[in-house]
Design brief:
Layout (H helix, E strand, L loop, with lengths): L9 H28 L14 H25 L8 H6 L6 H27 L14 H35 L25 H19 L6
Helix pairs in contact: 1-2, 1-5, 2-4, 2-6, 4-5, 4-6
């Protein structure tokens, strides 16, 4: 793979960096919550943090507030980085550069779906469950599954990013370099409002619907 360092749009770097930080913090604090109240599948000798569940909830809520913007960017500006109909034909060329790119696109889309699943299941949990020892609620178990999916998705996202573009691609998301024409007034350049790709449209509907549900369902106390 090419080792040349690509240029990433500033808006993408901002959204991606904040989303990455919040995802990592949510994974760490989420495990800490499990390690404090559950432990049925193993645990670590971590210090007891009295309000770890509240901290995890705050991080998750912050991520939820960011997710609509990140999702809209992904579908309308960064859609080339997501799975599309042609990605399936590229998968017929295993080992070739286009194959790795297609797998990376699949992983990016899977991360969007996984984080959406995580925020929906997390929003449906009650803070009183775990301190009371109620660790078998379906929403909590689903949230544990979501935690695992996001963890593995993040790992694959990083590994495939390194495979497709090497370390320069990974570092390009965190550089301070700004091109003269990459200013806020031009951030929406290349915006595509009407996608003709059916696969991408289905994923968009699922993700946007999930985000809406994450905001609305807790209000019904389900």
């Amino acid at each position: 793979m090419s080792q040349s360092s690509p240029y990433q749009p500033v808006l993408l770097r901002i959204l991606h960096s904040v989303a990455a930080l919040l995802t990592i913090l949510a994974l760490i604090s989420g495990f800490w919550v499990y390690n404090t109240y559950d432990k049925r599948w193993g645990s670590l000798a971590l210090p007891n943090l009295p309000d770890i569940q509240g901290l995890h909830g705050t991080i998750a809520l912050t991520f939820l507030l960011l997710l609509p913007f990140f999702a809209l960017y992904s579908f309308y500006l960064g859609y080339r980085r997501l799975i599309q109909a042609r990605s399936f034909s590229q998968l017929k060329q295993p080992g070739q550069p286009v194959w790795w790119i297609a797998v990376h696109q699949f992983t990016n889309a899977a991360m969007l779906l996984a984080t959406t699943f995580a925020v929906v299941t997390g929003r449906m949990m009650k803070e009183a469950w775990l301190p009371a020892g109620e660790i078998n609620h379906p929403w909590y178990l689903a949230h544990l599954v979501a935690w695992l999916v996001v963890l593995f998705g993040l790992a694959f996202h990083l590994l495939l990013g390194a495979k497709v573009g090497g370390v320069p691609l990974l570092l390009s998301m965190f550089t301070w370099k700004v091109n003269p024409d990459d200013r806020p007034r031009s951030w929406l350049k290349g915006l595509r409002l009407n996608s003709s790709d059916p696969i991408l449209k289905v994923i968009e509907i699922i993700v946007i619907s999930g985000i809406v549900l994450a905001f609305l369902l807790p209000a019904f106390n389900l």
